[in-house]
Design a protein that fits this description.
The chain has 412 residues and is of the alpha+beta class. The protein is 66% helix and 10% strand. The chain has a 5-stranded mixed sheet, covered by helices on one side. Helix 2 runs antiparallel to helix 5, helix 5 runs antiparallel to helix 6 and helix 8 packs across helix 12. The radius of gyration is 44 Å and the shape is rod-shaped.
Length: 412
């Protein structure tokens, strides 16, 4: 029942909840005006019946219905009613008081041009009105002295100027509140954009991690399987060795992927870097690569010393990707990796330099030839290096060697 009653009040014919206040306010002012009219709160003019005083009263009170939706139109109707009351049939007390409320409504809910135009017009009319009153009734006003002029000015300010100043104050507060609301909306949008960017960056980082984990072990598995299939005569020992290598790479790849999945379930953003293997563990990578048939020579790994966690993980992933690429494309299958710490004369900082070289059979860049893969590994190494503020270079040198050089700042 209550819901139906609320829906009835919210119909368009009544103006909805936002306009119900104007309807009730107009009715209340009409009731007060009728009461004052009955009590004789007006100036009776000769030859004008008192019933005519109700016409401007109803005009001004009806204008209150538009104080929220059409304040300019309401002020125009109210001005007509006030003019009838002051010039033709009145004046009366209550139409003047209601007109002040219409001025307040214009300054609060009207447009900027309308509000400030009305303020300027009321100010100009006030100056002209007081000056005209002094000229028309000089004897009456001068008889009371300066007090009479000040009383006239005070009455005009109380009835017309005070509602407008109050309305302008409320308007300023509303504008400030709207500005703060828009600023809060912008902050919310920026927070959503930052969150989306963070999610995209995290996904890209996890994609690099998954590529590094899967590509190395699957490359070794694929090469060993190819070698086993290429055997013309069945050799139990060689087949057993191939299966052992395949099993070891599969188990290690699954273990690393399991660690990453556990981190994702835990919801920690950077924990994947902590559980990743560090540069000191590339010896195990080299042993796996040697089992797969790659001749790996490591130099300077033990001398690199302690490194920041993110630099350590990036260095490990770089060496891992270089071994994966060498397993795929090196001909003959040989890789030399050199790691060293060096000082940069430009920024007086310490850098970790990783250089990897392997011979290639085709004079083409892997990232540009379909037979050399999609270039995802090189892109991952480049992105990881740039994120840490380092430098990355990869390409063929003059003697047919594919060379990768990664420089990572140790203190960033």
């Amino acid at each position: 029942m209550r819901q139906k009653w609320m829906e009835f009040l919210d119909r368009d014919i009544l103006g909805g909840f936002s306009r119900m206040g104007s309807l009730l306010w107009a009715a209340a002012n009409t009731a007060v005006g009728l009461l004052l009219w009955a009590l004789g709160a007006s100036v009776d003019r000769p030859g004008v019946h008192r019933l005519w005083l109700l016409v401007p009263l109803l005009f001004v009170c009806a204008a209150l219905l538009l104080r929220r939706t059409r304040p300019g139109v309401g002020l125009t109707i109210g001005t007509i009613g006030l003019a009838l009351d002051l010039v033709v049939v009145g004046p009366s007390v209550w139409p003047v008081a209601v007109y002040g409320d219409l001025l307040y409504a214009v300054t609060v809910w009207g447009g900027s041009r309308l509000a400030y135009g009305v303020v300027a017009a009321v100010g100009a009319l006030g100056v002209l009105g007081v000056g005209g009153a002094v000229l028309v009734w000089p004897e009456e006003l001068l008889a009371e002295g300066l007090l009479g002029v000040l009383s006239l000015v005070g009455l005009y300010v109380l009835v017309f100027v005070t509602p407008m100043t109050s309305g302008l104050s409320v308007r300023a507060h509303r504008a400030r509140a709207e500005l703060e609301r828009q600023r809060a909306v912008q902050v919310t949008r920026m927070a959503e954009l930052d969150r989306a960017n963070a999610i995209a960056a995290e996904r890209a980082r996890m994609a690099r991690e998954l590529h590094d984990v899967v590509a190395n072990h699957l490359s070794a598995v694929a090469l060993q399987s190819t070698a086993a299939l290429a055997l013309r005569e069945f050799d139990p020992e060689r087949v057993r060795g191939v299966l052992r290598t395949v099993r070891d790479n599969s188990v290690r790849g699954l273990a690393e992927m399991r660690r990453m999945i556990e981190v994702l379930r835990a919801g920690e953003q950077y924990e994947a870097e902590r559980v990743a293997l560090c540069l000191r563990d590339v010896g195990q990578l080299a042993a796996t690569a040697r089992d797969a048939g790659l001749d790996v020579v490591l130099s300077g790994v033990e001398e690199a010393g302690e490194l920041p966690a993110r630099v350590d993980a990036a260095a490990y992933r770089t060496v891992q990707e270089c071994m994966t690429n060498a397993l795929r494309y090196a001909s003959p299958p040989r890789l030399r990796v050199t790691v060293r710490r060096t000082a940069d004369a430009e920024d007086a900082g310490e850098w970790l330099v990783i250089e990897a070289e392997n011979p290639v059979a085709e004079p083409a860049e892997p990232s540009r030839t379909g037979a050399w893969g999609s270039g995802t590994g090189l892109a991952g190494m480049r992105e990881r290096t740039v994120l840490l503020g380092g430098r990355f270079r990869a390409g063929l040198n003059g003697d047919g060697q594919w060379r990768v050089r990664v420089e990572l700042p140790i203190e960033s």
